[in-house]
Design goal:
The chain is 38% helix and 21% strand. The protein is built from five helices and seven strands. The mean pLDDT is 92. It starts with a strand and ends in a 7-residue tail after the last helix.
Length: 184
């Protein structure tokens, strides 16, 4: 499923984010930037030691911010590491922090001349952010960022498994139907 905002096509896809030939892959990182489980671990394994070497030099990243390293052996040019919020029930500013992850990642992508960016679902794993709410925040934040005509060709929301892909697609459709976003 896809939608066009300004000059940017936003598309939900299923697959392995580490295998995508895009300019930038976004990593749902931890604040120490040391690799871990889930998407973070997969990116570090696929990209190899060059990613961790650059992460060590950066010294960490606070929640809501984004930093850039090499993609190592992955087909993407760069990895944008962003640290999502830990879900604490929704009253601790989690929505704003999560939206900032998407906005700051897209800003880093533009600063590095990227035209294509792939995002995982940030904070929905070990950080416990409810998947449906996180998807809504992601779709709104990306739409608001790109609808002014920024120079990004494609933004991908990547679901690893079929159930997440199905849910992402369903939420995307609901938001289109509600007029929050329009499909293209």
């Amino acid at each position: 499923m896809q939608a066009v905002f300004g000059k940017t096509c936003l598309e939900v896809v299923q697959g392995d984010i580490t295998a995508l030939a895009v300019d930038a892959v976004v990593n749902a990182a931890n604040s120490r930037l040391r690799g871990g489980g889930g998407v973070d671990g997969a990116i570090h394994r696929a990209g190899g030691p060059a990613i961790l070497e650059e992460c060590r030099k950066l010294g960490g990243c606070p929640a809501g911010e984004a930093v850039v390293t090499t993609a190592g052996r992955m087909p993407s040019r760069i990895v944008i590491h962003t640290v999502g919020p830990v879900w604490r029930g929704g009253s601790g500013g989690e929505e704003d922090l999560l939206a900032r992850c998407y906005r700051n990642s897209l800003t880093r992508a533009l600063e590095h001349g990227c035209r294509t960016v792939a995002f995982p679902s940030i904070s929905t794993g070990i950080y416990g952010y409810p998947f449906d709410e996180a998807c809504r925040v992601a779709l709104r934040a990306i739409k608001e960022f790109v609808e002014g005509g920024v120079a990004l060709d494609r933004v991908f929301l990547v679901a690893y498994g079929p159930s997440d892909f199905e849910r992402y697609t369903q939420l995307f459709g609901e938001l289109c139907k509600a007029g929050v976003i329009s499909d293209g």
